[in-house]
Amino acid sequence: MFYCRSMLNQPEMGPDPAPDPADPVDAADSADAAAWDVPAGSADAAESADAGESADAAVSEDAAVSEDPAAWDMRAGWAPPVPDAVDLVVETQTMISVFAAQQLVRVDAMRVQALADARVHGFELTDVIERSVRLELASALGITEAAASDLIGQAEAMVH
Q1: Which residue among 41, 45, 53, 121 has its CA within the 20 to 30 Å range from the CA of 141?
Q2: How far apart are CA 27 and CA 31, in angstroms?
Q3: HSE of 150 in the Cβ direction (CA atoms, 13 Å)?
Q4: Neighbours of 18 (CB within 10 A)
Q5: 96-129: pLDDT as tens digits
Q6: Closest by alpha carbon to 9, among 58, 47, 55, 56?
Q7: Is 54 or 29 the better-scoring residue by pLDDT?
Q8: Cα distance between residue 49 and residue 77, in whole Å
């Protein structure tokens, strides 16, 4: 009999009808059921025999949970593709692009926040505020003020 997890705690409903070997669905079900059978000498079989169940019909839920998911794929005849060297380089380039985009978004947010804070406090000298942001960014990233200015300009152009 084929057991799934939802059926483990259900009362026995009687025997299944005999599978038809010509029916591909019944053949697949019997193959799946064979994979769930508990070996006769295992501790799970002894526990189920004590409970009055047959050893071949009992399934240990702990064993099903602790089984490696990769084993499921191997039984199904499928294995994930192993990335080659080019795939790893492409993956790294993609991550670099994502980090660069995040940096531009955050640089622009820093500039917009500094200008908004200046307006709240009554400062309308945007050139002074922008230079302050430029110098703070240059100092934090260890780049020149001109490079920071280029980064801020690029961030503003890409985000807006």
Answers
A1: 121
A2: 6
A3: 5
A4: 7
A5: 999 999 999 999 999 999 999 998 888 778 889 9
A6: 58
A7: 29
A8: 33
Token reading at 155: 């961030």
Cα distance between residue 160 and residue 148, in whole Å: 18
Phi/psi at 132 (nearest 5 deg)?
-60, -45
Rounded-to-5 percentages of helix, strand, coil across the chain: 65, 0, 35
57-76 pLDDT, tens digit per residue, is 445 554 555 577 777 777 77
Q: How far is CA 61 from the centre of its chain?
A: 25
Is the CB of residue 9 less than 8 Å from the CB of residue 53? no
Measured distance CA(149)–CA(141) in Å, rounded: 12
For the entire predicted model, the pTM comes to 0.50
Q: What kind and span of H or E run contains 65?
A: helix 61-66
Q: Which residue has the tokens 């009808």?
A: 17
pLDDT of residue 38: 53
Tokens 């002894």, residue?
46
Q: What is the pLDDT of residues 1-41, one digit of tens each?
A: 444 444 444 455 555 566 666 665 555 555 555 555 555 55
The alpha carbon dihedral of 100, 105, 111, 113 has a sign of negative
Taken in order 36, 39, 45, 48, is the CA torsion positive or negative?
Answer: positive
